[in-house]
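Hey, I'm writing a tutorial for new members on how sequence and structure tokens pair up, and I'd like a real worked example in the thread rather than a made-up one. If someone can provide the structure for the chain below, I'll link this post from the tutorial.
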Amino acid sequence: QVNLVESGGGLVQAGDSLRLSCTASGRTAIIAAVGWFRQTPGKERAFVAAISWGGRNTYYTDSAQGRFTISRDGAANTVYLQMNSLKPDDTAVYYCAASLRHLLYGYDLWGQGTQVTVSS
């Protein structure tokens, strides 16, 4: 099985930057891609960005394009989400997830989440 642990959340002000980390352990060789999602109370979990496990391909949703960068440290089995120019609307619980199938779908393995709060 694959285990995912997120870290790096916190309370920041609008305009600040934050870097989230997602470290995978276990059978990491079966991972196809790792994605970041976010969720606010009363809303569905939303896709933010993803990266193939080899690091060659990335995907960003409109909410992340231009402000967020996803990257991977292969040696550390860690995927990062660098978030710049944060806005209050970015406040959410951020989850990383692993897909064993494809960059854009199949995210069945989840971390516990990390809270990001952006104050105005």
